[in-house]
Amino acid sequence: MASVHESLYFNPMLTNGVVHANVFGVRDWVTPHKMALLVLLSELGRAGAQLGLLERRRLNRLLLPLLQGPDMALSRLRKAIEECCPHLAGSVHVRLKLMAEGELKDMEQFFDDLSDSFSGTEPEVHKTSVVGLFLRHMILAYNKLSFSQVYKLYTALQQYFHKDEKKDGADESEMELTNPEELDGEMEKEELDGPLREEEIACSGPLSQKQAEYFLSQQASLLKNDETKALAPASLQKELNNLLKFNPDFAEAHYLSYLNSLRVQDVFSSTHSLLHYFDRLILTGAESKSNGDEGYGRSLRYAALNLAALHCRFGHYQQAELALQEAIRIAQESNDHICLQHCLSWLYILEQKMFDSCVLLEHSVNKSLHFGLPYLASLGIQSLVQQRAFAGKAANKLMDALKDSDLLHWKHSLSELIDISIAQKTAIWRLYGRSTMALQQAQTLLSMNSLEAVNVGVQQNNTESFAVVLCHLAELHAEQGYFAAASEILKHLKERFPPNSQHAQLWMLFDQKIQFERAMNDGRYHVADSLVAGITALNSIEGVYRKAIVLKAQNQMSEAHKLLQKLLIHCQKIKNTEMVIRVLLSTAELYWRSSCHTIALPVLLQALALAREYSLQYLASETVLNLAFSQLILGIPEQALNILHIAIEPVLAHGAVLDKGCAMFLVAKCQVASAASYSPQKKIEALESAILNLNEAKTYFAKVDCKEQLRDVLYFQARLFHTLGKTQERNKCAMLFRQLHQELPAHGVPLINAFK
């Protein structure tokens, strides 16, 4: 189940996706790239009515990122303009060529002519517009240059233009040596890439204040909403180091470096950047200017709070507790109730890691509602629901609590928490074994995201909630035998959450588990054993459990029993009830295989009591099926049939295909065993009914390619057909059994001693 406290990290950079870079002391200056933009604006004004409405609209959409973004190569700029208006791109190129190959007075005259854009009763550009402000900044910056600086600018413009000319010449020579088909493929690829990819916009020098703000706001927003579209960790760190080289006191760059280090789980660099952020924030006085005398103390307490969150994220709970105590002390001295509520939420998380207490969480929810903090209150409610789910509370009460939190979300437009709530519901239904309800909730979230596909920032479709829902969806499809669909979902997850992203471990674990189940169904135990190491690296408890399953399948009973007993003690200690029940069921199966049928009964009754106490309906049904199998072995098939009718309905409604097949196979075995005391006519009817159930079980097993179970069903069917005197059907089943038996030799275990 997904953690709902990831969003409690205090993020001073993001307010509606905008970075407040108020300490970057570099003014705007003229560069060759900005001169090219000035030429573009000048030619755009000259074109006037000659441009069509569609072309003008494309250029207007292109201008804003060009004006705000960092400098780029002339070839890249020209390509972006050509995609909007090829005629205008040619005019810009000619104008730059005349200026670069002319004299210094041509550049001087160009800047003098720019002022004419504001003259007249109906000027081409309004002074207060985005374009007007840019023109005025550039004119003012140019007028402040000395003669030597003007000459350096003119030289830089010539180099900027001639560098592009040389590149074009090299490209033309490559065209002559390149296959036309390969050239077409490369051009198609470039067209698909789009005009302004962040990977191709490099910060080649010191950025102005506006460029730095735009770059940081864009990257911070992408890291929060869609990590795959942000720069790669190494590339982003390189750009941030470039920014800090020219201004080491740029606090927000340090904070973005902190977020970037968290992506790659670099504890040293993230701590270093976080401390530098708050140090620079205090030294520059940025907080004091915006918050008065409280600014200094506010920075200190939020610095301690963020440090506590960082240590908690990396599992350093004692260091996190010390930092949290410091934050609480400073917040109490300053009477900062908002900070204290954040501290209380993190205190609950630490208590949850080390102890088991929900008193702090209930107190946090009440206080958050009192102080008007709906975000914290909702997170607290969802954490409380998560804890109650693990404690075995009824599903209807949990859904009522989540309904109350949903009211808060819709009332305050907390779109991210709406996604978290739906993902929480999906995980709760999966925990209780209601796969149909889980599938419905997963589809709800996916449908919500597809409604607003235009605005990536709004739909939040690259968050942990989306990853959790897709992982559950993949597992649900795999359980029903739709492995191709599950593979497509996992492929989509790999594209959306690359291996270096922070939520990649979710799909990695589910991918390994699905591969493991397929290998076990197919009888390839050596392949399943090789996957155990990968599962253990992502989840140690799951890895140990699956290692025991492999050992059991390989008839290494004593080793499997030792492993299961150690895992049982550990899971009881950490109160992982779901895994405790699964371990007890596997232990009971070991006793069956060792012919200790009476010892298995108390183990199964203990598992059933736990499943019912914690409202784990599907596990309870599975346990009843195991009890029915025990009764069959002990010679009371009639009683086994009676309890099977109680347990089989949830399995057929919500169970995996393999479990459905095992249940129907067990019903057929019980029917055959009970028929021994029937009259001849009634016995024939019972055997024919058992054959029908075996056909259904065979269909289920074939769907998941479970060859060992198919072999057992065919053997059983052949014996029944022989008893009924149906020779042709018997021979057909015998032939299919022989083919599978040669492919999968028996391990010396009697068929009757294996339920699954």
Detailed description of the structure:
It is a single chain. This protein is an all-alpha fold. The protein has helices at residues 32-47, 53-68, 74-84, 86-101, 104-114, 130-143, 147-177, 180-193, 209-225, 233-246, 251-263, 267-284, 286-291, 294-313, 317-334, 337-354, 359-370, 374-390, 395-412, 415-431, 435-451, 456-459, 464-479, 483-496, 504-521, 525-538, 540-553, 557-574, 577-593, 597-613, 617-633, 637-654, 657-674, 680-703, 707-724, 727-743. The protein has a domain at 32-166. The two termini are 27 Å apart.
Unreliable parts:
1-26, 174-204, 286-293, 450-459, 748-753
Distance between the termini: 27 Å
Number of strands: 0
Helix count, per DSSP? Answer: 36
The biggest beta sheet reads:
none
Specify the helix fraction band: over 70%
Class per helix and strand makeup:
mainly alpha
Mean pLDDT score: 80
Question: Radius of gyration, rounded?
Answer: 34 Å
From the spread of the alpha carbons, the general shape counts as elongated
Strand fraction equals: under 5%
Domain Anaphase-promoting complex subunit: 254-353
Region (Disordered): 167-187
Family: Belongs to the APC5 family.
Protein name: Anaphase-promoting complex subunit 5
